[in-house]
Amino acid sequence: MVSGSPGSGKTFFVFRHVIAQHIEKGFSMFVYDFEYSDLTLLAYNAWLRNKANYSIEPAFYTINFDDLSRSHRCNPLNPESMLDITDAVESARTILMGLNREWIKRQGDFFVESSINFMTAVIWFLCRYRDGEFCSLPHVIELMQLDYDRFFTILRADSKIEVLINPFITAYQNEAMQQLEGQIGSTKIALARLASPQLYYVLSGNDFTVDINHPNAPKIVCMGNNPQKIQIYGAVLSLYFTRLVKLVNQPNKLRSSLIFDEFPTMYLKYGYAYSNCQVQQGRNNNRYSRSFYATSRRHLA
Known about the structure:
Blueprint: E1 2-3, H1 10-24, E2 28-33, H2 38-50, E3 59-63, H3 85-99, H4 110-128, H5 137-143, H6 148-155, H7 162-173, H8 177-192, H9 197-203, E4 213-214, E5 217-224, H10 230-248, E6 256-261, E7 277-281, H11 290-300
Parallel strand pairs: 1-7, 2-5, 2-6, 3-5, 6-7
Antiparallel strand pairs: 4-5
Helix pairs in contact: 1-2, 3-4, 3-10, 4-5, 4-7, 4-8
């Protein structure tokens, strides 16, 4: 972990060398570029200089929600990478915690867990429906907008998610609308922040997958944030990162490097231990509690 005040030279003296040397050594790479495109340009130029040195030439991809002409498309809920319902649970928790930072301290709360279960049910339904043809975050958001009669009729067609949706259906049948709106409304309100054409376009495509260190298809992936849109973009990028770590941390994969600028702007699920991970932290805006930083330092050491 590299910490320093703004302008102290973290990028110039440390991270440009880390990026260049890891690419020279044949690493696949993920770069979280908080102030796009500073680190992305460093990675891109290093890739141009060294791509011929790889046994299999890596592809270079970028995600940029502000300038679609400079962005590829990638679906973080790609059904091929979601092996069971726990993947849906993890994805739902990541995106909702990223959008509602205060929920991090309220895990276990009735309405928080209800929102996570509700979104999990929708994700898993779409993952199983027509082999996941419509399993993407934009489709999840839009499906939630249906009226309750149509919505619950559709979800009840899949017995695999019955245990998740049963409390909501029971509340609806008992006309406990205030409770139901409290459970579902908080989810819909949070996800409504992501309902933009730019996000929908990027999140619904399949130009690449986030298994950056696949032996037959190595990748260098750079994802950009925007300091003016930290909470919205940070939540989506956290979902990418959660899916990426699960796919990268497997046996018989290539060497990989995970590099982050302004790591506190992303949601980190407690308990992960990240290897080959360099973190550039310029400003601590108290986005998380002291326990978060203690946990982060322990796992990132």
